[in-house]
Known about the structure:
heterotrimer; A: mainly alpha; two-stranded antiparallel sheet; 76% helix; 3% strand; B: mainly alpha; globular
Amino acid sequence: MLEVLIYGIIIGSIWALVSSGFSLVFGVARILNFAHGIFFVLGAYFAILLYPYLGFFSIIPAVLLVGAFGWIVYRFLISPIKQYEVMVILITLALALLVKEILLAIFKDISQSYPSLVSGLVTVAGVPVPTNRLMILGIAIVVIICLDLFIRRTKVGKFIMATSQDMEASMLVGIDVEWVYSVTMMISAILASLAGILYAQIYAVNPATAFRVLIYAFAIVILGGLGSVRGSIIASFIIGFIQVAISMFYEPRWAEIAALATIIFILIVRPKGLFGVE
Amino acid sequence: MKWLALISLIILAILPFFAPQSVVYLLGLTFIFVVYVVSWDLIAGYAGQINLGHTVFIGIGAYTTALLQNPERLGIAIPHLPIFVTIILGGLMAVAFGFAIGAICLRLKGYYLALVTAILPLICIQLLNVYSDVFGGYEGFSIGFENSLASSLMAEYYISLIFMLICIVAIVYVVRSPLGIKLKAIREDEELAEAVGVDVVKYKLIAFCLSAFFAGLAGAVMVHYRITVGPDLFDIPLMLMIILAAVIGGLGTIYGPIVGAFLIYLAKNYVFVWIVQKLSLNVSDEIFLYILLIIIILKSPEGIFEKVRRMFS
Amino acid sequence: MRLLVAMLLIAMIMPIASAENVIKIGVIGPMETKYGTAMEHAVKLAADEINEHGGILGKKIEVVVADTKLDQNTATSEFRRLVVDEGCKVIIGGFSSGVALSMLDTMADLAREGHKVIWLGDASSPRLTDKVAQDYEHYKYFFRPLGLNASTFPLDMVAMLDFLRSQGLNIKKVAIIRDNALWTDDVMKVFKPLLEKHGYEIAMDEKAERGQTDFSSFLLKAQEKADVIVPILAHVRGDSLVKQWADMKIRIPIAGHDLSAIDPDYWKATDGKCFGEIYTADGGGVPIPINDKMKHFLDAYKAKYGHLPEAYSAYGCYDAVYLYKEAVEMAAKAGEKNPFDPDVLVKYLEKFNRTHPFEGVRGKIAFTKNHDLVWGDGFVRNWICQWQKGKQVVLYPKYMATGKLVLPDWIKPSGAKETVKKEEKGTPGFEVAVGLTGLALAYAIRRKRN
């Protein structure tokens, strides 16, 4: 039972990074980005590619590259068609499949992992946990606190908040809404890519991981309430626990079905989610 | 327009006598793909319900007939049924699912409907994997070459062609009937339609079930045509291809999507493959589909059907 | 739009060129994986070698590649393309029993339409060759020289467990992690009774999904319940499994049928974490020069591609091309009018039997009545190997052994469960984690109030 708790928190912290960005983009720009999983795997692949040259510093350029990619995706693909919601779903879905196929062509259908940042084993309350996993929890918490501070304390963050609350009013007071959306997308991509690198460090990524991650991210933000960053962070840990519990006591294959069923159930029964603020 | 259709029909009818066998085989597949697209157009183009989970019906029809032909996979004794019976049962099974899904989901408005239906095929694929001893998992299974549509390629081709024609005629009949007019009214303005006394929920559901029926039939015929069944019939790439074909041809025009389906399916199997080979790219030809879809959405996000309709008429 | 129509017309009208003095060999496999690329490389290598020496009966070999994408729809339509459009007379490759079974029916269907082709296949399920036995007329064109029947894997795996026992490991309970695919079902059918017969007990039997990368829960469960982890993996790659096994210092060894462990760059791919993994090398396909032919093959491969064969499938495919050549030449020598005719060739391929085997790089190749490979000493069999310090070492059978068993230091040889007691006292890590989580929660709640 304790194992479930500890491993659930660790996987939950990765999901928190993924879903907070996903949720932020929806909350601010009302975009449901089906290509979010692509940011996750691209981050991991960039970091793996750059590792031989830069060592662990490869995380920084990898994250920035994906951030830039996120910005480009918004500016050139999503922004022109933003008012057609279904078309946004389709275009991001097509983009996700496109990038997945390109990744498949370059990296083949092989799981690749990033070297462990630290090695060793720590016994936590009788449960041995690899140090590299424990470290992820720390990183995730720090990053999420930073995100919160960024949004609340900086000028850019305040623009983002203002835009998410009232887009038209923000435009009236002179905020460049398009710019805010681009920045939000960039932040979301950075968070996802960081999560991808951390994930690749304990597990591994392959091109198909993008869609698995997307399913979990989707389930989490819908459970937490579309657009509520805080709700999605709490929901991340809930889904993390459920995932590990199902894997440990039953079969991991059911964990994904549980996530998918959650999406449908919540969308039909309570579209605003558990902590929805709509 | 009529003459054009007639001429193409005559060409298709005599084609197997002089075309290479690989072309004949591929055209047979294309006919079935046309039915996928047209049946999607019925619900998305006519009734205006963006159903991104159309492949659920295709897959259910396909697996129903495949399992009925291989009852040992189900672990129950079923007498061996003729192929055309199980194909129709596949269509009916799709209707059952269509009814259940429609009854729950159709009260969701556009955007949410798109989301829920987009997730459904993924659940189906996961279930196929979990019960892999029945469904064959991601590897799919072969229904046995003795269960193919006919024992010669030419016969299969004609069956497929006739199947397509029947489905098109039936769907055209539906959209020209009073039902079709009500569906159009719902698409244009749901509240107004309700105000003038159209039972919106009922007609949406009927359209959903009809669309599911033809998709299920087509999925089942596809299985017997190519003698294999697998999760690709549920998967997102197929859905995107259907959407692409319908959008290129023009949503809500029936005839447009037919042209679109021919174009896309043949382009995928000839032009895209050819480009990949010529440039000796090491990528899947599917990426051209996605690029094309992205370009089309960017160029005219409201759907380019208006433009195309003008071009063809 | 118009451009698309025009291109479509051009592409459809383009005639299919076929030269008379060329023999086309199709290679079909999952080209998105190493298994597929290894097939392609090996066949092309063999074709180049044969072409340099005048080809097959004077005809130059041309290799046509097709990708199954591990998906039955793509696989069967590509199979069709190779046979009908390209006019291949022989197809080499396969992989994934479920997909291969679909292709097998396509092959029979095509034969019925008059497009006969010899298929020198891979994929290990017994159901493939069972079809040959059940309906010889339609399926006789299928031979499986690339890999052994899955029912032979349990023989080698049980031999491996017995070997580990003889080395002082106290193994009784077995935790199986296997592909969620057809072939492992067939392996289990034979493996289960055999394990019981040899006094083992299956404590866990879990299926891994293709593309799965998180194995922690499997590993934790296995550690709790069993004495050894037996992976039976081909579609799922073992890299991330062994990485997590080493990271988590799971106290029981990994010993099983992990196809990816055969790859020579596995050490690099797992960052050395595969140290101590024991595996059976499918069909003897390991880059260890066991005979002159193998040595020549490895050298030639390295010379052409700059590295050793990237996966197990290279060995069988290389053999298959030469096997085909020899069968055709035998047919020509016997005075057959059309030695390339599949119907004729079936007879000559069947002549490679226990008493008249073909000498391949992996040992002797001979077919059983159902077109399966003969398994056994001297013939193709699955060596038991281990990864040690960046090197693959054959442990068993004895006459092949190139090294001794080595275990990672966190594995205690005298049985895992008895000796290692659960450590009771916690380390500061937990308190730190709880503290941080608490802080974060408090922070979040405070913020929410504001």
